[in-house]
Write a structure and sequence with these properties.
This protein is α/β, with parallel strands linked by helices. The protein folds into two domains: about 150 residues, Medium-chain alcohol dehydrogenases, catalytic domain (Quinone Oxidoreductase, Chain A, domain 1), CATH 3.90.180.10; about 150 residues, Rossmann fold. It is built from eleven helices and 17 strands. The longest helix has 15 residues. The mean pLDDT is about 95. It comes from Ceraceosorus bombacis. InterPro entries: ADH-like_N (IPR013154), ER (IPR020843), GroES-like_sf (IPR011032), NAD(P)-bd_dom_sf (IPR036291), Trans-enoyl_RdTase-like (IPR047122). One of its GO terms (molecular function) is oxidoreductase activity, acting on NAD(P)H.
Length: about 350
């Protein structure tokens, strides 16, 4: 049985953070209570703490843990699960805590061959990549296969801008598993790794006139995921598509300048919190019940229907490269600083909680 109180990293006055004792959350209908073992960090975590959260809201999104209270769902007590919640927005929901509550239909069962940190990394990054590729770009959904599909000159192409980012690593892998010729950009030091997880071609993102080069070398390219989505990268992706245009999915608000670059290119936004099934507001946008229910239903192919679990168990999906950090909940603010200073390249920061 779970205790009444737990430790959690919460937002504090003046957009600081603190570890404090709070009530263990009570799962609602369709939710389970999870004892958190490991969490991984995303830029959205420190951005919520620094700009959006109000005092006492529990921070953190990604997690791996075990079901402590099944609450009438099909997930048995003791089941090892991974996923994410919308941290930094609620006082009773966040992963940087000893316990959390989450909807059962948003969780992925973690296979035995994947450790807690890698399983945790599927959260924001894996779900974002899946939503972007298979909902927004409408790529061919990967099957529960044990082997990679063969590629040939007629295989469709996918551009992943910033393949060494957390989302990018998942997008490269999922794109390849789905039968796409994956083109990606990254620092040269990360090219070999990206090829090892499925990229067919890698480019130095700092290369002069790179969009024109990609467009020329891949004239049929019509789909792109921009894993940065700021600092002009949306426009770079739009210019990289082939002669017939196509669609660029972005993780931040579409930029007017990027939209105006090409009439034959659509800039489409994706926000992964919508798959969690809870209506919410984000900035000036509102995601109503109908919207989040539809997004949740689409993601269930990967969660409750088991695509993520199968691909991890088969070894086709490796997740993110992990950098283990010390300090548990108290050490997470140092991880925020590490990310803010631009020290993260390829690696995902992970903290052991329980």
């Amino acid at each position: 049985m779970a205790p009444a109180q737990m430790k959690a990293l919460v937002s504090a006055p003046d957009h600081t953070t603190e570890v404090k004792e709070v009530s263990v959350p009570k799962p609602q209908a369709g939710e389970v209570l999870i004892k958190v073992s490991t969490v991984t960090l995303n830029p959205t975590d420190w951005k919520h703490a620094a700009f959006m959260s109000t005092p006492s809201q529990i921070l953190g999104c990604d997690f791996c843990g075990t079901v402590q209270d099944s609450n009438g769902t099909d997930l048995a007590v003791g089941t090892r699960v991974a996923g994410f919640v919308h941290g930094g927005k609620y006082e009773d929901r966040g992963s940087f805590a000893e316990y959390l509550k989450a909807r059962a239909d948003t969780l992925s069962k973690a296979p035995a061959n994947v450790d807690d940190a890698v399983a945790s990394s599927v959260g924001i990054a894996g779900y974002t990549a899946a939503q972007a590729l298979f909902s927004r770009l409408e790529l061919n959904l990967p099957s529960k296969t044990d082997t990679l599909p063969a590629l040939d000159s007629n295989s469709p192409k996918l551009l992943v801008w910033a393949g060494s980012s957390s989302v990018g690593q998942y997008a490269v892998q999922l794109g390849r598993i789905a039968g796409y010729h994956v083109i990606t950009t990254a620092s040269p030091k990360n090219h070999e790794y990206l090829r090892s997880i499925g990229a067919s071609e890698t480019y130095d993102y700092r290369q002069e006139a790179l969009p024109e080069l990609i467009s020329k070398q891949h004239p049929t390219l019509s789909a792109a995921l921009d894993c940065i989505s700021e600092g002009g990268t949306q426009g770079l992706c739009a210019r990289s598509l082939g002669s017939s245009g196509g669609t660029v999915v972005v993780l931040l608000k579409p930029e007017k300048e990027a939209i105006e670059i090409r009439n034959d290119v659509k800039i489409v936004h994706t926000l992964v919190y919508s798959v969690l099934g809870h209506p919410f507001a984000y900035g000036k946008a509102t995601y109503d019940e109908a919207t989040v229910s539809a997004e949740n239903a689409k993601m269930q192919a990967f969660t409750s229907q088991g695509i993520f679990r199968h691909l991890f168990a088969s070894g086709l999906l490796r997740g993110n490269v992990i950098k283990h950090m010390d300090g548990g909940l108290s050490g997470i603010p140092q991880g925020f600083k590490y990310m803010q200073e631009g020290k993260v390249s390829l690696e995902k920061l992970a903290y052991r909680i329980g």
